[in-house]
Amino acid sequence: MDYFIELFFSGLTRGSIYALIALGYTMVYGIIGLINFAHGEIYMIGAFTALIVSTVLSIYNMPLAAILVLTVLASAIWAGAYGFTVEKLAYKPLRRAPRLSPLISAIGMSIFLQNYVLLAQTPDFLPFPPLIPEFAFMEPVAGVIGSSELVILTMTTVLMLLLTLFIKFTRLGKAMRATAQDRTMARLVGINVNMIISTTFIIGSGLAAIGGLLIASHIGQINFFIGFIAGIKAFTAAVLGGIGSVPGAVLGSFILGLTESFATGYVSSDYEDVFAFSLLVLILIFRPAGLLGKSAAEKV
Question: I want to staple 201 with a disulfide (CB 3.0 to 4.6 A). Which of 83, 90, 95, 240 is the partner?
């Protein structure tokens, strides 16, 4: 039973990270109908930013809690700046272009950012310092769930709640929902659509960067390719839950994380991707729009 619980919490931890990345995919798709395939690289850049900032702060012997907070803020802000820049350079000029053009641009930006970090850093794995301390009160359950997993689950839950409240109750959140529903009508009622799209990229990039920091601290190493793998998994989770649906992205992420964890624990780590993508295929056969997605009616 302890092994089952350990796998369960491990799956929730994976799902939490996928959720932080998948939210960026689903928010951007909901606003402009674009799959931002460079989003996984923003996650990777957030992790590298965290490595640099935490290393610099540790030189000054700052408390670990202060290092964690400052690193989270720096990573989210820097990744948000990257998300803003990517949207302005790669996507904004192509909003009225055929749908294939921004897709190719997104793939090209993903490859560019991968190679940019490869040349600026190293192709090798780099050690990442543990930014999350071991809590004394976690010792009785240390064999089932660790301190870093608890922090990841807690931070993910808090961030998702804050995002939900932001979208539902703030003026900017309501403008985002209006833009997602009908961009033309949103412009007619005075909403700055360009600002809303940029804000969506910034928020999604910041969340992905925090996910990169948390999982890098948990695993203890990073390299330039981690964004591609995590991005594909998070995109799968977003599609599984229903692309464009924020609750769907979260649900799909946790289902995917648990599926991979149990497949690794009870079968083999070699087959975790097989189980994950087989689950996606099965769900899309019976629910083509995803678990919580809505089928869009096309006008003719």
Answer: 83
